[in-house]
Amino acid sequence: MIHFNQQIQQVNVFNLAGQMVTSKVGMLQKIDISNQPNGTYVLQILDEKGNQKSIKIVKK
């Protein structure tokens, strides 16, 4: 489970092959990727102010 410090409008999760493995839309404060295998993922995040950023995470 990934928790965010602010309200998020949209989160897209990609594996390192560039495939989108999950996408969530709505006012979010967390996203669950427990059903995904261990590995490295890139999250594209759109916050409530319209700012977009990408972060890399490693699930173990």
Descriptive notes:
This is Secretion system C-terminal sorting domain-containing protein. InterPro entries: Secre_tail. The protein has 60 residues and is mainly β. It is built from no helices and four strands.
Question: Could you give a quick summary of the protein structure above?
Answer:
This is Secretion system C-terminal sorting domain-containing protein. Pfam families: Por_Secre_tail. This protein has 60 residues and is mainly β.
Strand order within the widest beta sheet: 2-1-3-4
Through-space gap between termini: 12 Å
**Share of β-strand residues:** over 45%
| C-alpha-based Rg, rounded | 11 Å
Largest sheet: 4 strands, antiparallel
Protein name: Secretion system C-terminal sorting domain-containing protein
Keywords: Signal
Domain Secretion system C-terminal sorting: 5-54
InterPro entries: Secre_tail (IPR026444)
Chart the SSEs and their pairings.
Elements lengths: L1 E14 L4 E12 L7 E9 L4 E8 L1
Antiparallel strand pairs: 1-2, 1-3, 3-4
Question: Can you give keywords for this protein?
Answer:
mainly beta; 4-stranded antiparallel sheet; 60 residues; 0% helix
